[in-house]
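Reviewer 2 asked us to include a model.

Predict the structure of this chain.
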Amino acid sequence: MSLADIAFLPEDPAHDAEIEHINAEAFGPGRFTRAAYKIREGGPHERALSFVALNAGHVVASVRLTRIAAGKGRALLLGPLAVRPVYKNKGIGKKLVKIAVEAAGEAGAAVVVLVGDEPYYGPLGFKRIPPGQLRMPRPVDPNRLLAVELKEGALAALSGAVTHAALAAD
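Predicted model (structure tokens):
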């Protein structure tokens, strides 16, 4: 199996059951206690900006984007990103992130935020958010709060408590 055997497509409702299985496999029941999950409970993800990797017609990885708000700023939250164990370390996850970030930019998003490991996401353009700039709804290691600016200076508009954009007061 090589990256050439993988089809990268927009997420479809028909993929939901396989995506849920992959997320359960990757993150276990503890995923429901994470800060990013708490944000995602506030409303739907952006299906048009979420993608899957298929091999032989089966979902082997997925990434989702969800609209968030922090202060007067708006952004997209990337995650969960999950890859089936036998497909890891083949570049599938990184390709999904690149596709999602590119789609976010094309949709006019200014910033994509995530909670993740800088050694993995750094080469994809993500940098640490200054400590104290954002407050997640549950504890998060500040070194794992990362963002990529799609419009210069846009990260500065995000400040304070992070919530699902559907719950934000405009």
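The longest strand covers residues 58-70. The chain has a mean pLDDT of 93. We have added this to the supplementary material.
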